Amino acid sequence: MNTGIIVDTCVWIEFFRKPESKLTLHLKSLLRERKVIMVGMVMAEILQGVKAPKEATLVKQNLEKLPYLEITRNIWEAAGEISASLRGTGITIPLSDLIIAGAALSGDHEIFTIDPHFEKVDGLRLHKWI
């Protein structure tokens, strides 16, 4: 898989709730350019927030069109190592974000996020959108 952009859940939430925001419009352009890749953690987080079964079906149908990056053993290990390193400096990041960071680092992917947690992970490339 070529390098791409993993879109964090916080960005997807705005995408679904505010169809005309600058963040949403930027994500739409990335989707048109086929730069977005999906990881399971983000997919699960998106689907846990869906309220109606009909809406869940629609969301799944749209997300399944995206290239998908499996979370491998190496990514799980990287997430644990990132966590241990950060905890050593007094920083704790949610496991879900550690897995997303590990996935991004595994393929030199960028992360499109507005969550400041990711700024604390060494070597992680954050997508610049403004």
Please identify the oligomeric state.
single chain
* CATH classification class: Alpha Beta
User: So, CATH architecture?
Assistant: 3-Layer(aba) Sandwich
Mean pLDDT: 95
* CATH topology heading: Rossmann fold
Gyration radius, rounded: 15 Å
Give the class from helix and strand content and strand pairing. alpha/beta
Number of helices: 6
CATH homologous superfamily title: 5'-nuclease
Query: In what range is the share of β-strand residues?
Result: 5-15%
Shape: globular
Mind describing the biggest β-sheet? 5 strands, parallel
As for the number of domains, it is: 1
Strand segment tally: 5
Q: Looking across the biggest beta sheet, what order are the strands in?
A: 3-2-1-4-5
Could you give the order of the helices and strands?
EHHEHHEHHEE
Helix content: 40-55%
Q: What topology emerges from the helices and strands here?
A:
Layout: E1 5-7, H1 9-17, H2 22-32, E2 36-39, H3 40-48, H4 53-63, E3 68-69, H5 73-87, H6 95-106, E4 110-112, E5 125-126
Parallel strand pairs: 1-2, 1-4, 2-3, 4-5
Characterise this structure.
This protein has 130 residues and is an alpha/beta fold. It has one domain: Rossmann fold, CATH 3.40.50.1010. 52% of the residues lie in helices and 11% in strands. It has 6 helices and 5 strands; from the N terminus they run βααβααβααββ. It has helices spanning 9-17, 22-32, 40-48, 53-63, 73-87, 95-106, and strands at residues 5-7, 36-39, 68-69, 110-112, 125-126. It is globular.
Brief summary:
Helices cover 52% and strands 11% of the residues. With 130 residues, the protein is an alpha/beta fold.
